[in-house]
Amino acid sequence: MNKALVLFSGGQDSAICLAWALARFDHVETVGFAYGQNHLVEMEVRRDILQRLPSIKPGWSERLGPDHVVDLSGLGAISETALTRSMAINTDQDGLPSTFVPGRNLAFLVFAGAIAYRREINHLIGGMCQTDFSGYPDCHQDTLDAQMQALSLGLDRPMKLETPLMHLTKGQSWDLAEEIGGAALVELVVNDSHSCYRGDHHTRHDWGLGCGTCPACLLRAQGWSDFLAHKTQPNDES
Question: Which ranges in the chain belong to alpha helices (H)?
Fold first, then answer.
């Protein structure tokens, strides 16, 4: 059976990646990580998305398998970052944002790989992107390639990571969502997914819920604006 495990946080990117996987694989499972993040609300919204997303397309409910949640609170305990502590969101002396959690994506892949091994799954799906992102080095393609090579060697099994958003802007990721699931998927991602670093899932904007001022909200808002602008552009052939 053609199976995949989606690293699913409940955010915009991972929600689109889950839909992408459901459109391509016979069997799809999900994994979420509670690592002591301040915006723990994302762990709540992911349950809502898992309930509603399968109804977008015929056959998706049959393809969606179990959800796995991993406690990685130890990662948050050793991380002095704006995502795991009450501190300002800024840029440090190395040029990295204070929201960077060292080793986060690397740890996610190791634990996802362990689950995939047990579940006889060889494909991991992640929402990592090096086009519109916050400067995190563990989102780079070369970093992920190296980690997957080590994972395949360590498990003695070929493991593949699919990153459908890697070379897309946030605006283009909205285009992809519309291509996969039409207006229904776009509406679900807008209303149900969570991106805000401050955990605000109450303040409503046209692009979704969030504080509107943190880097994640600003990036999401700009992507939504680009998406709408692209949709309203006149057809070059007309």
Answer: 12-22, 41-52, 60-63, 73-77, 104-118, 141-155, 170-192, 215-232
User: In this structure, how many other beta carbons lie within 10 angstroms of the beta carbon of residue 109?
Assistant: 23
Q: Which residue has the tokens 């679900």?
A: 188
- Pairing type for strands 208-209 and 204-205 reads antiparallel
Cβ-proximal residues to 82 (8 Å cutoff; 6+ apart), any chain: 38, 88, 89, 90, 97, 98, 99, 197
130 is written with which tokens? Answer: 């090096």
Decide if 69 contacts 28 (C-beta within 8 A): no
Structure pTM? 0.93
Query: Which band of pLDDT confidence, cut at 50, 70 and 90, is reported for residue 232?
Result: confident
Cβ-contact 3, 123 below 8 angstroms: yes
**The residue to which tokens 């839909």 are assigned:** 19
pLDDT score at 133 = 62
The neighbouring-strand residues paired with 208 are 205
* Angle of the 170-192 helix axis to the 41-52 helix axis, nearest 10: 90
Average of pLDDT values for 67-72?
A: 96
Position 16 pLDDT exceeds 90? yes
Give all domains of the chain, ordered by start, each with its CATH number. 3-195 (3.40.50.620)
Contact 189, 170 (CB under 8 A): no
> What's the rounded Cα separation, in Å, for the pair 16 and 221?
16
Average pLDDT of the residues in 178-202: 96
